[in-house]
Amino acid sequence: MSAKQIVYLNGDFLPIEEARVPVLDRGFIFGDGVYEVVPVYGGRPFRWAQHLARLERSLAKVGIANPLDTAGWTTLVDMLVARHPWPDQFVYMQVTRGVARRDHAFPKGVAPTVFAMTSEFPPVAPALLASGVSAISLPDERWLHCDIKSTSLLGNVMARQKAVEAGAAECVMFRDGFLTEGSASNIWVVRKGTVFGPPRDNLVLEGIRYGLMAELCERAGLPMELRRIVHAEVLAADELLLTSATKEVLAITELDGKPVGSGKPGPIWNRLHEAYQQARTA
């Protein structure tokens, strides 16, 4: 972190220590808002158009008018990134419904709160790439609008904490016997050379990695299929993968204390990891 980490809040760039939000902001009271996390490689936001499109979708689904147009968001992020010395960063953007008297119903005539910050994006440790990570299985007990990238993340927080307490890096969640996702990642199953993922619906956050994974699979010459995946298929996977903005593509090499496949990152992960490195520099 630089000596002065600068954030954006409602039109101003200021040191993070000076940023203040009223206690009646609905993001604080209700978790009433949405967010995005955008990787920045070499000073350039990665898959920027796709992140903006998902932000727009999330805002529309919760009934918050987008406070900025494409040019406005682009300028905001470019200015924020330029204020920090790191070549690779990840930008967090958040929009809440704004400040109003505490009442569950949407207030009228309230301006959204717009906040953004950026942090250094260190590369995934080579040792972690070489070993993969462990995960545990959990029932998916979150709400039924996981396609909205909402700041209401208590369900995800609880799931991640259970993984931490079990000594694991992530959880693999199931709803009614079908794979959904991790607490902060999309989960992929590899079987006989094909990459499988859950379908795009309200039960999973359609990570930017969905579209990216399709491109990576094409680049690597791998078939990909989205469909319902039962618990037994996950247990029988040749490889398990997770993808996220900050973890990129990682192999899950242990699930519930048992090795996945050979217990090491497999050949499909290796091909997708190489394809990702090519995509981020393209």
Automatic annotation (TrEMBL):
Biological process, per Gene Ontology: amino acid biosynthetic process; carboxylic acid biosynthetic process
UniProt cross-references to Pfam families, sorted A to Z: Aminotran_4
Cofactor: pyridoxal 5'-phosphate
Keywords: Aminotransferase, Pyridoxal phosphate, Transferase
Domain of life: Bacteria
GO CC, alphabetical: cytosol
InterPro entries: Aminotrans_IV, Aminotransferase-like, BCAT-like_C, BCAT-like_N, Class-IV_PLP-Dep_Aminotrnsfr
Gene Ontology molecular function: any one: transaminase activity
Family note: Belongs to the class-IV pyridoxal-phosphate-dependent aminotransferase family.
Protein name according to UniProt: D-amino acid aminotransferase
Organism name: Zeimonas arvi
